[in-house]
Design goal:
Length: about 325
C-alpha cells in the first residue's frame, strides 16, 4: 500500500505556498516602507540583507509547494498513462504506486481486469474445445465419402464431401466470431502484422509452388494491431488465399500506419472483380465464381472479425490489374 496521501501533498503544497507568498509580501511591504522612510522595524543598513533572506525563503517555499503539487498530480498522470497502456494492449494491469485515495480504485480495476481476462480465456478455450470436438466426426464423414467413392458411388461421395466442407466452414465462421467477440473485449489483445503475414506467405508459397507464384511483403517489422494473433491470421489468411487463388503470378501484401489505424492491403494481378460484385462477395455465402471451390464464407469472416475489432474491409481495383483488399484495424 502507498505511504503517501494526495490530500496530504496538496495540504503541504498549500502551506508552503502560503508561507512563500507571506515572505515575499513582507519583502514588498518593506521595500515600500523604505521608499517612504516608514520602516521602523528594519535596522538601518541591514535592509538589503534581510530582504535577500526573505526573498530566498519565499522562493524556496514556493518551489517546495510546487513540488508537492507536482508529485501529487504526477500519480494521477501516471494512472492515466497506465490506463492507456492497458487499452492499447501494452500492459495487462495497472502497476505502480498511487495515493491512498486512488489505490483502492486501482486495486478494484486490477481485480476486474484479472476476472475479465480469466473469463475470456475460458470462453476462448471452450471455443477451441468445440472446434476440436467437431474435427473427429467431420473426419469420419470424410472417410465415409472416400469409401463411397471407392465403391463407385461418386455422386454420394461428392454430396458428402460438399456437406462436410460446408459444415467445416460454418464451424470456423461461428467459432471465429465467438473467439473475436471474446478477444475484442480483452484490452490486452496485441500482435504484430509482419509475423503473421510472413508465416502465412511462406505457407501459401508452398501450397502454390507449382504455379511459380510470388508473394511480396512490404510490412514494417514493428507495426502491431489490437487483436488476437489467431484472428489476424484468420483475416490475412483468407485475403491472401483469395489473392493467390486468382493471381496470375504476383501478390503483394503491404501495411502502414495512419494515425491510430493500421492499413493492410493485399493486391493480386488477376482478372479482378467488377464493382457491382465487390460489396456482394463480402456477404455471407456469396462467391464471385460459383464454379470455384469454397463456401463463400472467407470474406464474410474477414468482414465480421474486422468489425468486431472496430475495423473494416473494402475491395478496390488493384494497381497490379487485379483486386485490392484494404483491411483497416486499430493500431496498437
Amino acid at each position: 500500500m502507498p505511504s503517501f496521501s494526495l490530500r496530504a501533498r496538496i495540504f503541504l503544497g498549500a502551506v508552503f505556498w502560503t508561507l512563500g507568498l507571506f515572505a515575499l509580501g513582507i519583502v514588498v511591504f518593506t521595500i515600500l516602507m523604505l521608499r517612504y522612510k516608514r520602516a521602523p522595524f528594519v535596522i538601518h543598513g541591514s535592509a538589503e540583507t534581510h530582504g535577500t533572506i526573505w526573498v530566498l525563503f519565499g522562493l524556496s517555499c514556493l518551489i517546495a509547494g510546487l513540488s508537492q503539487f507536482r508529485r501529487g498530480l504526477s500519480s494521477v498522470n501516471q494512472l492515466r498513462s497506465r490506463l492507456m497502456a492497458v487499452r492499447d494492449g501494452r500492459d495487462r494491469r495497472l502497476d505502480g504506486r498511487y495515493p491512498s485515495e486512488v489505490q483502492p480504485l486501482v486495486d478494484d480495476l486490477n481485480t476486474l481486469l484479472d476476472h475479465r481476462e480469466k473469463t475470456m480465456a475460458r470462453a476462448i478455450a471452450k471455443a477451441g474445445d468445440l472446434a476440436h470436438g467437431l474435427k473427429t466426426p467431420l473426419a469420419v464423414l470424410a472417410q465415409e465419402a472416400e469409401r463411397a467413392e471407392a465403391a463407385g458411388q461418386t455422386d454420394l461421395a461428392a454430396a458428402i464431401n460438399q456437406q462436410v466442407e460446408r459444415m467445416r466452414r460454418q464451424t470456423e465462421y461461428h467459432l471465429a466470431q465467438a473467439r473475436a467477440a471474446a478477444s475484442s473485449a480483452t484490452s490486452g489483445a496485441r500482435c504484430t502484422v509482419a509475423e503473421s503475414a510472413g508465416a502465412l506467405a511462406r505457407t501459401l508459397l508452398r501450397l502454390h509452388a507449382d504455379r511459380g507464384l510470388a508473394i511480396e511483403e512490404r510490412v514494417p517489422i514493428d507495426l502491431a494491431v489490437r487483436c488476437q494473433r489467431e484472428d489476424l491470421d484468420e483475416m490475412l489468411g483468407n485475403l491472401l488465399d483469395n489473392a493467390c487463388k486468382w493471381a496470375r503470378g504476383r501478390t503483394i501484401i503491404e501495411a502502414s500506419k495512419s494515425d491510430s489505424t493500421a492499413v493492410i492491403t493485399v493486391d493480386d494481378d488477376g482478372a479482378g472483380l467488377v464493382p457491382s460484385l465487390r460489396e456482394r462477395v463480402l456477404q455471407r455465402g456469396v462467391r464471385a465464381d460459383e464454379a470455384a471451390p469454397g463456401s463463400g464464407l472467407g470474406l464474410a469472416i474477414v468482414r465480421d472479425l474486422a468489425e468486431l475489432y472496430g475495423g473494416s474491409i473494402a475491395l478496390e481495383s488493384s494497381p497490379l490489374g487485379g483486386l485490392r483488399a484494404r483491411l483497416r484495424l486499430p493500431a496498437a
